[in-house]
Amino acid sequence: MERITLKYVRKQLPQRDPWGHKGDFGKVLCLCGSVGYTGAPVFASRAAVRTGAGLVFLGVPQTVWPVAAVKSDEAMPFPLPEQGGKLSLASEEEIRRRGADCDAVLLGCGLGRSEESDELCRRLLTLSKPLVLDADGINALQGHMDALECRRGQVTVLTPHEGEFLRAGGELSLGREEAARRFAAKYGVYLILKGHETIVAAPDGRMTINTTGNSGMAKGGSGDVLAGMVLSLLGQGMEPLAACACAVWLHGRAGDLASAEKGERGMTPSDLLAQIPYALLETE
Q1: β-strands 156-158, 190-193 pairing
Q2: Nearest 5°: phi and psi at 196?
């Protein structure tokens, strides 16, 4: 298993074209948020911007849209049909229309759960773009993991913590490394198993383990930041395992920088976001 280090990240991150324009650096779509979870979509979309994506679109339930709009300067939020404060099946057509013009899609941060939103998540597995499933995007697959079969051969990233991993049918009795390897191979996905020394596993058996991060990152919102970072690097065209591994290292490194400034108890996901550019600067 390869350890993710600064040297690894420097080697994997693509050079940024000095003559490039915003269309050259990835167009990505975040589908996030619900009533009561208005921070998650903002964290995810801001992280995608901070990690270098050229254009970031953010689809949220109609009720959440005013909040997201006020908090978004760089990302472009738009309202989607909802039921009970969560995305409804009526949003599928608009999501597919917008997703067709994007390079990668993120589904799940702060999405909440209902019968309709869960069904929507499963229907959107047929999107032809690289797809990142986080939080309730993963939880919606509980009892329906066979739905992932339609994505075999495509780029699908799951970013669970251990509880979500277990709900998705993962088995930890043999240890985190073996559990991640077996899960990624079984379902044909790139798995980011979050926690101390986060593991990234590819469906072909390749694995990496992270060397950055601290306990100050164990706060609601940190995972949304990571999901947005993975989305951004995928949208910029990186090879999937490298995109996941680099996002994980940069996320942890940003957390270490935030901890050095604010301390592990007092740092917040907003502090983590603010440090992403400085983590990236270390790779240049």
Answers
A1: parallel
A2: -60, 125
230: left (phi over 0), alpha (psi -120 to 50) or beta: alpha
Cα–Cα distance, 134 to 220 (Å, whole number): 13
From CA 263, how far away is CA 260, in angstroms rounded?
6
In DSSP terms, 3 is beta-bridged to 209
**What's the CA gap between 253 and 275, in Å, rounded?**
8
Sequence-distant contacts of 184-187: CB under 8 A, at least 24 apart? 187/145, 187/148, 187/158
**86-131 pLDDT, tens digit each:** 999 999 999 999 999 999 999 999 999 999 999 999 999 999 999 9
Taking each helix axis from N to C end, the angle separating 39-50 and 269-281, rounded to the nearest 10 degrees, works out to: 10
Question: E-assigned strands of the chain?
Answer: 2-4, 27-31, 55-61, 76-80, 82-83, 86-87, 104-107, 131-133, 156-158, 190-193, 199-201, 207-210
What is the SS3 assignment for 181? Answer: helix
Rounded distance between C-alpha atoms, residue 252 and residue 225, angstroms: 11
pLDDT digits (tens, 9 = 90+) for 12-42: 999 999 999 999 999 999 999 999 999 999 9
Rounded distance between C-alpha atoms, residue 217 and residue 12, angstroms? 24
Amino acid (one-letter) located at 8: Y
Question: Is pTM beyond 0.90 here?
Answer: yes
Provide Rg for the chain, Cα atoms. Answer: 17
